[in-house]
Amino acid sequence: MSFPVALQLFTVRNECKENFYGTLKKVKEMGYDGVEFAGLHNHKVEELKEMLADIGLVAVSAHVPYKDMEENPAIFADYAKLGCKYIVVPYLTEEYRPGAPRFDEMVANLSTFGKAANENGMTLLYHNHDFEYATINGKYALDVIYDTVPAELLQTEIDTCWANVGGVVPAEYVRKYTGRAPVVHLKDFWGEKSENMYELIGIETKPVRPEGFEFRPVGSGKQDFPAILAAAKDAGASWVVVEQDQPSMGLTPLESAKKSIDYVKTINK
What we know:
By secondary structure, this protein is of the alpha/beta class. Helix content is about 40%, strand content about 20%. The strands form 3 sheets. An 8-stranded parallel β-barrel has the order 1-2-3-4-5-8-9-12, surrounded by 7 helices. Strands 6-7 form a two-stranded antiparallel ribbon. The protein has a two-stranded antiparallel ribbon with strand order 10-11. Helix 2 packs parallel to helix 3, helix 3 (about 45-55) runs parallel beside helix 5 and helix 9 packs parallel to helix 10.
């Protein structure tokens, strides 16, 4: 069994801002089957749904900021209309992270979000970084989240790059959530964990860029993707999603996405 492969559109976010239709068309031509949204870039849901239908791409899922889910409950219906099967909490600002004052509040809200997703025919996923691998009473905070919120309200979207950076073996961690891992993020990197890493994803801008770490096209870095795909199959995943937060190796974002899908095709069998 081979997986359908989607592209997380954060990879080509600037291209989407400039020409959403043209970028989606290029993504399809590269060989991707679907996309995971990271913002609508001032387009109406109806417009994007028509674009996807015309081009032949599946709206697999959408990364939607935590605060947007909290402050705008109607957002769940919007992404359901777009055709997304999954809606994803993509990132936590510092006050909601493990050990921070509002972590418990965030975990409780995930149940609320999960119910809203279910009511709109979707499933809520949580997309990790490395900070969720901090421990709480000897247990990874990410496991605390999944142990606290029931599976019918929250499923996993394991980001395999950040899992590795967080100190676990990505394939083993995907397999740990067998039956609860419908979407797996394929992300490659080179180098070691360093200070100011989140400057690389454009969220926490610091004056000094981290040295010795970069995101790379899938198959061009340190990750064991044959093992990850095998684990995703064992875990019952339905989709794999390519993401590269920043381009590297002298490639543009679109060239990076093409290099990734070309590699994935060689092992996705």
